[in-house]
Amino acid sequence: MTDKRTQEKAWVINQTEMIPGIMDLLIKAPKTAAAAAPGQFVSVYCADKSRLLPRPISICDADKFTGALRLVYRVGGAGTEEFSKLGPGETIRIQGPLGNGFPLDADIQSVLIVGGGIGIPPLLYLAKNLTVKKTLVMGYPSVTYLDEELAQHGDLYIATEDGSRGTKGNVINAMEENGLTADAIMACGPLPMLKALKQYGAAHSMSVIISMEERMACGIGACLACVCNSTEKDPYLNISKKRVCLEGPVFDAREVEL
Q1: Contact criterion met (CB below 8 Å) for 128 and 104
Q2: What is the pLDDT of residue 246?
Q3: 27, 62, 127, 143: which has the fewest C-beta neighbours closer than 10 Å?
Q4: CATH code assigned at 129
Q5: Backbone conformation region of residue 78, classed left if phi is above 0, alpha if psi is from -120 to 50, else beta
Q6: How many Cα atoms sit within 13 Å of 3 on the Cβ side?
């Protein structure tokens, strides 16, 4: 496979705050947008040179024709705080697309697309590109975001921890309450959610494909900062580990120990 990742100077088209602490950044990055696949991410570099390491942000959407790349991210530290101040016409440096994406050509007829927290944004690009029957289940603490756009691509079920909308509880509660099944689950979110989905899939004879959230440093597999436990031994490293940034972030749930 040809390595399509590249570094690129991107121009900010627009940026808004979707809900408190969640930013919606639209940038012009033609090379990256042209190569992007659902489930991949980009490394975004800070202008402040004291912050050497890039910040990994999942790709929420990409337009191969206009070169627009959409990044929806949570402000959680100095780096993302810097990004949140960017306005139209300013530039940022990115590298990508990085990692492996979701399998769009899997031999299945139906999919449950399940997201939680900041794992929700990359699932919009997935929902737009999957051509099989889709049911979407999204979990939020309280306030929802991206739900109106997600609902355009399949039946949408929502779970909120406080019960303010949809099922009170988590995505598993919403799936059980509505008796949701499919040929496969494709999911992104926090580790406890992924563990529960792996068990749910096994109980309902569903394959489970997950996108893992791990802290990353280099983003290209060189530093081994984002390894996860694997159910098989890596033939090159000779250890039962996988690099989330390189072999992932998307895995068959059977490949990794959660």
Answers
A1: no
A2: 65
A3: 143
A4: 3.40.50.80
A5: alpha
A6: 7
Measure CA of the first residue to CA of the last residue in the chain; give whole Å: 29
Rounded to an integer, what is the distance from CA 38 to the centroid of its chain?
A: 8
Edge-first strand order for the sheet with 61-63 is 55-58, 41-45, 91-98, 6-19, 22-28, 68-74, 61-63
Annotate 185-196 with b (16+ C-beta within 10 A) or e (fewer).
bbbbbeeebbeb
Residue range 63-76: mean pLDDT, rounded: 97
The whole-model pTM stands at 0.90
* Same domain (yes/no): 36, 62: yes
What is the tally of structural domains in the chain?
2
Of 67, 98, 129, the position where a domain reaches its end is 98
DSSP character at residue 117: G
Distance of CA 197 to the CA centre of its chain: 16
User: What does the DSSP 8-state code read for residue 150?
Assistant: H
The more confidently predicted of residues 221 and 199 is 199
Q: Say which range, 19-23, 107-111, 167-171, 241-245, has the weakest mean pLDDT.
A: 241-245
Q: Are residues 205 and 116 in the same domain?
A: yes
Residue 88's domain comprises 6-98
50-69 confidence digits (pLDDT tens): 888 889 999 999 999 999 99
